[in-house]
Amino acid sequence: MARGHCNWLLTPSAMGEVDAAAAASGIDSYGLMEKAGQAVAAAVLRLFPGAERFVVLCGPGNNGGDGYVAARALHETGAPVALFHFGDPATLKGDAATARSRCPIEGAPLDTCRPAPGDVIVDAIFGAGLARAVPPAVADIVQRVDEAGLPVVAVDLPSGIDGRTGVVMGAAFRARHTVTFMTRKPGHLLLPGRMHCGSVETFDIGIPFRLVEAKGERLFVNGPEAWDAAMPQTDAAAHKFRRGHLTVFSGGAAATGAARLAAAAGLRAGAGVVTVASPKEAVAANAAHLTAVMLKAVETESDLADYLHDERRSVFVLGPGFGVGAKARAFVTALAAAGRRLVLDADGITAFAEDPQALFSAFADSVPRLVLTPHEGEFARLFPDLAADPALSKVDRARQAAARANAAVIYKGADSVIAAPDGRALINGNAPPSLATAGSGDVLAGIVGGLLAQGVPAFEAAAAGVWLHGDAAQRAGAGLTAETLINHIDRWH
Ligand SMILES: NC(=O)C1=CN([C@@H]2O[C@H](COP(=O)(O)OP(=O)(O)OC[C@H]3O[C@@H](n4cnc5c(N)ncnc54)[C@H](O)[C@@H]3O)[C@@H](O)[C@H]2O)[C@@H](O)CC1
Ligand SMILES: [K+]
Fold this sequence. Notes:
By secondary structure, this protein is of the alpha/beta class. It folds into 2 domains: 12-217, 3-Layer(aba) Sandwich (Rossmann fold); 224-487, Ribokinase (UDP-N-acetylmuramoyl-L-alanine:D-glutamate ligase). 39% of the residues lie in helices and 15% in strands. α2 crosses α3, α2 crosses α4 and α18 (440-453) packs across α19. It is elongated. It starts with 11 loop residues before the first helix and ends in a 6-residue tail after the last helix. Bound molecules: ligand NAX and potassium ion.
C-alpha cells in the first residue's frame, strides 16, 4: 500500500467500479483474484498454524472465487482442507469459475458442513456483493460456527455485513480476522460491522492507486492526514489573544460542571483565553472552581449583546448543562447574527427540536461556522427524516445533515462520523469504550471550541477534536473520568 493511502475508504459499489476500471485498463482480473486468495491463505496460516482442519466456505460470486484460490493454496501446503459451497458451483461465472476449476478439492453443499473443534473457518460466502439478508442456510452455519466458538477468517467482509453501512443483514459471522483488498470499506468501521471484523488487514492486490483515487468518494478514516495542515502552528511568542478566545456558556447554579469541563478542555486544546459566561445565580458556584479560566456574568440577551461588543470573543460553546428552551434559542440566534462561530452541543441541540430550520437558517449564509455534535438521540431530534431512513448509512446521514445545516456535523458514537457540507466525511476509529463516560461529550465540545478559537476551519476542528479526544482517552486508560481525560489532551504540534 502506498504511503498515505491507508486511510482511504471505498464503498463496495465504488470498489466494483475500480475493479472494472482495472480490467478495462488491461489488468488481468483473474490475477487479482489469485493474489486476493493467496493473501487470505497466508493470513490463515500465519494466524492459525496449528489448525487441525481449514474449512473454506465459498459463495456464488467472486468472494467465493477468492475462497477457491485460498482453499487450493492451503491444500498445496499439505494442510487438511474441507470445502463447502453455497449454491450450485456449476453456475459460477468468470474468474470465480476459473478459480474453482483450478481447485483440486471436491466441495460439498454448505448445509452438510459440520464444524468441529480444531477447525478454522475461512468465510468466502459473501463480500462486497451482498445484496439482501443472508439466506437461511447461511444464517444457520453462522449460528453453528458461533456456538462452536470456532475462529473465523473473513474474506473481504464477514458474510452478512453490509460493506456500505456496517449493518448485519440477517446474520453475520464474527471474524477473528478480516483480509480486505486495496482499501477498507465503511462497514469495517461502522457499527455493528466493526465488531464482526476482528483485526482488519488491507492487502494490496496490485490495482494502481490512481484507479482507486479516481473513484474516491471523499471518505476516509479520521486521522491527522485529514486535518494536520489546518492545525495551528506553535509559536512560543504568540500573544494569548492570537490563540483565540473561547467562551463557554454555563447552565444555572445546579448545572455548572459541564461548562467547566468544556472550558478546561478548550484551554488544554490550545485556546489562548477561555471564559465561562454564567448566569448571575451560578457565578459563585463557577468562581469556586475556576482558576485559569475566566468568568463573566452573562444573564440576559442584553448582557450577551454587550459581551459581543468585543470582537475578539469569536468562538462559543453552547449546550453542556445549559438547559433546553427559549434562552438557548435566543442566544444561538444572537451569536449567528453577530457572525460568531459556535459549537452547539447537548441541550443547545435539543432546544431546536421543534424548529430545526430556525437553526439551519441562522447559519445558512456563510462559510460553515457551526459545529453540531449530536449523539444518536439528539441527531434524531434535529434530523428525524434522516434518522428514520433505513436506506442511509451513518455516513450518508451525517453528510446530508451537514449539507442541510451548513455545519460540520459530528455524529457521535463509538463510530463517530464527521461530515462537512461539501460532502467530505470521516469515520473515526480511535475511541476506546472507556470514552463512554459522563462528561465525555462536554470535553469533546470544549476541544473543538478550543481549535475553532485558534482559527481551525469547522470541519477540520471537528475531525481533529474527535481524534484528539480518542487519543486522550487511550492515554488516560480504562478508569478514565472526564477530569482525567482533560489532563491527557495533547496540544497538536
Ligand atoms: N478489487 C477487488 O476488490 C477484488 C474483489 N474480489 C472479490 O470479489 C468480491 C465481490 O464479488 P461479487 O461482486 O461477485 O460479490 P459477492 O461474491 O460478494 O456476492 C455476489 C453473489 O452473491 C449473490 N447474493 C448477494 N446477496 C445474496 C443473498 N443475500 N442471498 C443469496 N445470494 C446473494 C449475488 O447474486 C451474486 O451471485 C469481493 O468481496 C472480493 O472478495 C477479488 O476477487 C479480487 C478483486
Ligand atoms: K466473506
